[in-house]
Amino acid sequence: MRRVYLARLLSLICYLGLIAFGMAWAIWLGQLPREEISLTLLILVAPLLVPLRGILHARDKALVWGMLVAMIPLLHGGMTLWAEQGPQKVWGWVEFLLAIGYIVSGSFFIRWRAQREHR
After folding, report:
1. pLDDT, the chain, mean
2. pTM score, two decimals?
3. Which domain holds residue 7?
């Protein structure tokens, strides 16, 4: 039971962190031109908001959809890691690790909760 709770907590922290980090990156950290901020928010953050209600209520389908949508920041973070230098590379690591953290912890949460319910 404790591992289910910890996996749920970690998945929520990582998912909400992805949303907050996506907004912070688009507005302050990414050094984007002012004209590109709205488009970047639309691409990076808006898809994360679609399954948010179900993720907050721990619905399996929403968690899986959230994992699929988390591939966008995962790819963006990986691309930033590969292409950038200096402080931008650090932000790429943060985004990449938040996305991986959500995908892994969400997967374990679904699995462990299902195992607990079938006992």
Report:
1. 93
2. 0.92
3. 2-117
